[in-house]
């Protein structure tokens, strides 16, 4: 490109572009760049904080729930180590009797043998959530039924009821 072509090209420029170039302030662009950089840095710090909180939550879960010793400070009956639980109670019509001990098992099942004179309904509860049972079994007299697919990582509670008032005699084992 020679000087004449350059001069011709420059003369065709609109004056508003020339005025804009003359009034250009590099600080405006620098401030915009700094703002983007600050937002990106804050987002990165928040992402790191969230990842740290996630790691901490997983560690707490593993330490408290998934650990084999998770229940050592909670009074409970370990069916595998402590053996069976024998229940002999008088129950009124439809009254729910809660077995006093929470229990754990090292097997995947808890079996209930009904030695009573009538059918009983057995409810299984997980953890401290006693509002709603997670499973239910009807066990006829002199029969055994099992809750299967259980985990050693949970505390279980059992509630027992019968349709008619009377003595219940139940054996709970794993």
Features:
single chain; 174 residues; alpha+beta; four-stranded antiparallel sheet; rod-shaped
Provide the residue-averaged pLDDT. 79
β content, as a range? 25-35%
Output the helix-strand order.
Answer: HHHEHEEEEEEEEE
Query: How many helices?
Result: 4
Judging from the principal axes of the Cα atoms, what is the shape? rod-shaped
Class from helix and strand fractions: alpha+beta
The value of Rg in angstroms is 36 Å
The end-to-end distance, rounded to whole angstroms, is 94 Å
Spatially, the strands of the biggest sheet line up as: 2-10-5-8
Major sheet, described briefly? 4 strands, antiparallel
Strand tally is 10
Helical content, roughly? 25-40%
Could you name the ranges where pLDDT drops below 50 across 5 or more consecutive residues? none
Task: Give structural notes.
The chain has 174 residues and is an alpha+beta fold. The strands form three sheets. A four-stranded antiparallel sheet has the order 2-10-5-8, with no helix packed on it. A four-stranded antiparallel sheet has the order 3-9-6-7, with no helix packed on it. The chain has a two-stranded parallel ribbon with strand order 1-4. The longest helix is centred in the first third of the chain and has 41 residues, at 26-66. Strand 6 (120-126) and strand 7 form a beta hairpin. 36% of the residues lie in helices and 30% in strands. The protein has helices at 3-11, 15-22, 26-66, 79-82, and strands at residues 77-78, 85-91, 97-98, 103-104, 109-114, 120-126, 135-139, 143-148, 156-162, 166-173.
